[in-house]
Amino acid sequence: MRESEGSFCKIMAARYELLVLPLLVLHGLCNPSPLEDVVIDRYSVPKICPREVQMGDFVRYHYNGTLKDGVKFDSSYDRGIAVAGVVGVGRLITGMDRGLQGMCVNERRHLIVPPHLGYGSIGVAGLIPADATLYFDVVLLDIWNKDDKVQTMTVDKPQSCNRTVQNTDFVRYHYNGTLLDGTAFDSSYSRSSTYDTYVGAGWLIKGMDEGLLGMCAREQRKIIIPPFLAYGEKGYGTVVPPQATLVFDVLLVDIHNPNDGITVDRQEVPAACRRTAVTGDFIRYHYNGSLMDGILFDSSYSRNQTYNTYIGLGYIIPGMDQGLQGVCIGERRRITIPPHLGYGENGAGSKIPGSAVLVFDVHVIDFHNPSDPVEIEVTHKPQDCNRTSKAGDFVRYHYNCSLLDGTPIFSSHDNENLQQTTLGLDKVIEGLNTGLLNMCLGERRVLIVPPHLGHGENGGKGVPSSAVLKFEVELLHMEEGVPDGYMFIWLTDAPENLFEAMDLDKDGSVPPEEFSTFILAQVAEAKGRLMPGVDQNKLMQDMFSNQDRNQDGKITSEELKLKTDEDKERVHEEL
């Protein structure tokens, strides 16, 4: 035995000793007598081996081929392309046919092929001498069979899956593409863009068309495609070799069909829903907007401000226009919008890709129509009600004010300070003024005030723009008022000579003290009535100033005049 052979045998002996294997194989390697069969050294075997080479399988492999003295006679690495062939049909030398059987993808083997299983007594001119023993170092890259089908394995699947991919659907997905030995050839992630296409329309390799069927949005799936359902004998450019099995790790981002409409999931509907939104209504709602894979692209909550718009009039994307029809105030619903009813092929900005399905989780805060009146619901009415409030009356009342979603705005109960106003003098918002009319003392009401009768588009302190308001009011005090523009009215006929009656000391002039004494006496004797809800001292000053024409601090008979109401139906006179 030569020295090189002795070194080889020592190495092999150490290896087989470590593996605690019989030395029968080693005898075949180091015994100078001729070999009868291929000697196989499986020196690197993957932990996971889902499939082994069998007769009739198509394989791709790399190898280095040397003679006994170590001289290299051939190498697929030198040619830069793996060898492809069918095992067990006579297309390979018999020794290679036998040596490849039972191999796993990524397994590495040393093969010793005796001459009669190699090139025999003929050899290969200029490369392999006659009767040469051949030594191969082989790594298996791929294995498939003409009877193979597309293999799919679900890696992760969402619990909820309302629909799956069917032919003619349009899908958006991310993928990593590798060869069967793990060599990466392409990835959508590297381009930061999904792959977007129709399924079953011939736009994809046949195996991918088939492998995507039945997937749910957000499902992760491994798809293994044999070469004849992929790029076949030609391969694809420099990245996919001929006859390569392809492995795709796919994440389905979204799915829709060009014939899809919107889908609406009514997640929470208030028990009381007296009215639903229709075209022309103005609506305020909060929303989270996400893609079908759950990635958030926008949220009104992040701005702490509702989205306010008209519905059905084209101010928003068509899918949202449709999806908000029929909502109740306080309702929560999920609206799924296909791209042709959303932002289409172009998407929007940097956060909504082209052809993206949009998912909106909506909470309706309120809606109204510009023609809406105040809604009045009487929750309590006293049995005895001899008089109801009217314009000009001075009233005191308690109220709670909130948004329709229950958000409190103000409550007079917080400080037990009754609110007061004179009805019809524009002292309160128009809707509240309307709601306080025709009330009985002690009556309680719920008022729904649309924004055009409330604080309008600009809102108010604590009141958002275009907000519908809810008032819970209780009328606790009511005084009959005076007509608009009056500070005092006579309840009986005025004295025939008013100045003489007012000039208490008969000196020909009426100073402020006499004026106040006279007026307050008329009120005390129920002959006249002052404007309610105003400080009496200020009222006296204003009334006196109106009559003191020359502002000299006294009223003369020439200055004192009755003010005649321009309203011909008025029967009272006022100073």
UniProtKB/TrEMBL annotation:
GO terms for MF: calcium ion binding; peptidyl-prolyl cis-trans isomerase activity
E.C. number: 5.2.1.8
Keywords linked to the UniProt accession: Calcium, Endoplasmic reticulum, Glycoprotein, Isomerase, Metal-binding, Repeat, Rotamase, Signal
Enzyme kind, highest EC tier: isomerase
Signal peptide: 1-32
Keyword Isomerase in annotation: yes
GO cellular component annotations of the record: endoplasmic reticulum
Ranges annotated as biased composition (Basic and acidic residues): 549-575
Start and end residues of each stretch annotated as Disordered: 544-575
Classification via SUPFAM superfamilies: EF-hand, FKBP-like
PROSITE patterns named among the record's database cross-references: EF_HAND_1 (PS00018), EF_HAND_2 (PS50222), FKBP_PPIASE (PS50059)
Record Gene3D superfamilies: 3.10.50.40, EF-hand (1.10.238.10)
SMART domains referenced in this protein's UniProt entry, alphabetically: EFh (SM00054)
Domain EF-hand: 496-525, 535-570
Top-rank taxon, per record: Eukaryota
Reaction it catalyzes: [protein]-peptidylproline (omega=180) = [protein]-peptidylproline (omega=0)
Main location: endoplasmic reticulum
PPIase FKBP-type domain ranges (all copies): 56-144, 168-256, 280-368, 392-479
Compartmental location: Endoplasmic reticulum
Described purpose of this protein according to its UniProt entry: PPIases accelerate the folding of proteins during protein synthesis.
Name this protein carries in UniProt: peptidylprolyl isomerase
